[in-house]
Amino acid sequence: MLRCRPKLSFPSLKDQHLPLVSTTLSIAFLVLTVSDFPCLSNFVNKHLLTLILVFLTHIHISKHKGLCIEQSKLSASTGDPCYFYTTLDQPWRATNGSKMSICDNNFNWKGWYRLMYNGMNIRMPEICTTFYRCGTYITFWLNGSHPQISDGIITRQACGKAWNTDCCGWSVLMQVKACPGNYYVYEFIKPNICYAAYCSGTQIHSKSF
């Protein structure tokens, strides 16, 4: 679908005046032209409404000539999680965070989230995180590498580590996306266990991707 800006033949006229002016001039010209031809004049009088509609249709089509923008490109970013997310700037989520009793199962997770650490870009750790970190007991880390921008939205496994389990004793599937500006967004899913929380790293992420 194209959404176009019309070319104006009369710069002094406003867009909303063009259809009325064009139609009026066209009908006036037609009436004056056919007045000397009785048969043609009768035809015009009989089908005047139809002719007006034809003129208006022509004007509408003409408005779609000129500088055009693809509607799909205008709306391509609508709903992009890189621009529609909730910021989580919670230092206790860091892997150097002390023991607490946070449980992400108690949060109403909805949509996408961007991790920050005191206002700086941060991301989930990609290595097993020991228990009693990230402000909780069972620590969830990203089992796999983060995506590139060209990868779009990908699915990753988030693994939870407890003292009596291996590094992936609990797990959930979640989605991740790399965004312009060197940050990531995550579609966090409510864990089915307490006390557990999603971890963030401790190194500020500034590398371009």
TrEMBL record:
InterPro entries: D8C_UMOD/GP2/OIT3-like
Domain UMOD/GP2/OIT3-like D8C: 113-200
Name of this chain's protein: UMOD/GP2/OIT3-like D8C domain-containing protein
Record's keyword annotation contains Disulfide bond: yes
A family per Pfam: D8C_UMOD
Key words, A-Z: Disulfide bond, Signal
